[in-house]
Design goal:
CATH architecture: 3-Layer(aba) Sandwich
Helix content: 25-40%
Oligomer: single chain
CATH class: Alpha Beta
Distance between the termini: 20 Å
Structural class: alpha/beta
Largest sheet: 8 strands, mixed
Number of domains: 1
Low-confidence stretches: 1-18, 21-30, 218-231
Strand content: 15-25%
CATH topology: Rossmann fold
Radius of gyration: 17 Å
Order of helices and strands: EHEEEHEHEHEHHE
Mean pLDDT: 83
CATH superfamily: P-loop containing nucleotide triphosphate hydrolases
Length: 236
């Protein structure tokens, strides 16, 4: 795994936890806006992952997400500057099959227009994987996912004392059958949280640069890991 070139925040005040920026906050025109949505069952740690990434902060108190929160970190990968619009939304019972249901049931969530998705489950609770498995199936049925990166994250790695057959089956399914990037992390201890977004941005950058150069970048990220291991990523 590559080391980051450097890790910074936008201003000293950004090191302290603060409320999410208002939804109307404008994004710089000079950057490519990458719309990322985190999805997962209740209490899997979606909010904790985002807040560790953006603020280096973790709260022991569990507060269910009851409304959409948006974060705007900036990332440099391969000398290309991106601004991420990371949306942390309440748990959804299903992925909208079309724009009508998105408008009536999930207005302003931007579910069907996301650039990339992060599907999070709890490594200590295998049932939470079934939730994202169902969501993924619905996503594939209802929108074109050929050029939409999908990252699967197993959180709460600190609660795992040994490997299990069920865990190995999950990893095998995600990597070999779904052809998705898989990352395990611990939001509580800030272990591999940066790796989550670094792997995501590798896939995004591959698609962006591949399309710009008229090159083919596998729509399902097949055999992507070896080629991308040479890339470098920085977070602002």
């Amino acid at each position: 795994e590559l080391d980051l070139d450097y890790l910074e925040r936008r201003g000293e005040h950004a090191r302290e936890p603060r409320g999410p920026p208002p939804e109307t906050e404008a994004s710089p025109d000079s950057m490519d806006l990458v719309k990322v949505i985190l999805l997962g069952a209740p209490a899997v740690g979606k909010t904790s992952i985002v807040q560790q990434f953006v603020w280096n902060d973790f709260s022991e108190e569990y507060l269910p997400t009851d409304q959409k929160h948006t974060y705007y970190p900036s990332v440099i990968i391969n000398d290309h500057l991106y601004e991420l619009k990371i949306s942390d939304i309440p748990v959804i019972p299903y992925f909208p099959v079309n724009s009508y249901y998105e408008w009536t049931d999930y207005r302003f969530y931007g579910l069907r227009s996301a650039t990339a998705y992060v599907l999070v489950f709890d490594l200590s609770n295998a049932d939470t994987f079934q939730y994202i498995r169902t969501l993924r199936d619905q996503m594939l049925e209802s929108r074109d996912m050929r050029n939409v990166p999908l990252l699967v994250v197993g959180n709460k790695q600190d609660l795992i004392v040994s490997s299990s057959e069920k865990r190995r089956d999950i990893v095998n399914l995600v990597k070999k059958h779904w052809k998705c990037t898989y990352v395990e992390c611990s939001a509580k201890y800030n272990w591999r949280v940066v790796a989550v977004f670094k792997e995501l941005m590798k896939a995004v950058d591959c698609l962006e640069t591949g399309q710009a150069n008229k090159e083919v970048c596998s729509p399902i990220m097949d055999n992507l890991h070896d080629a991308l291991d040479r890339n470098k990523c920085s977070i602002l």
